Write the structure tokens for this entry.
Amino acid sequence: MKKVLIAYISRAGHTQQMADYIAEGVRMAGFEAELKTAAAIKTEKDIAGYDACIFGAPTYHRTMPPIMESFLFIAQKAGLNGKPGGAFGSYTHSGDAPLHIFDTMEHVFKMTMTSLGPFKLLEHLVDMQDGMRACQNYGRSVAQMLVD
Ligand SMILES: Cc1cc2nc3c(=O)[nH]c(=O)nc-3n(C[C@H](O)[C@H](O)[C@H](O)COP(=O)(O)O)c2cc1C
């Protein structure tokens, strides 16, 4: 079965909750989803063997947390060229991180990114039913790019 990696960082838990719902969406589409924290990924081998990748980070100080930047340098060596991808994160007022991550995945890693674009979700919506559904839909949309 094709496998989707969801790698994320979360300080207060909202982006982690998004990651869980996105994984549900991937599974609803009939694919395997594996969740990893960006901090747990030490080398490009930890990103190998997945058919699609969805990366997530919250926005702090108008950017992504430094650990996510380090993670993206590791991901650069993972040969993700052409694989389906997406990027997400929770925020309160600007939500820059998912945009930057999506941009790097598209233009540096040359991944085939979801037409939905980067997915930023206001923090207070993460625990609402609409927020949950939006996350599930995002996961499903990336997974559906794996259908032959
Ligand atoms: C010190 C600090 C700085 C923040 N800076 C931003 C920001 O620049 N833009 C934004 O949209 N949200 C900002 N936020 C809000 C967080 O992005 C928001 O709380 C998010 O849901 C946290 O995600 P997490 O629970 O996954 O850590 C900031 C929060 C804190 C505590």
Observations:
- The longest strand covers residues 84-91.
- The chain has one domain: 3-144.
- Residues 129-144 form the longest helix (16 residues).
- Residues 10-15, 58-62, 90-95, 123 surround flavin mononucleotide (CB under 6 Å).
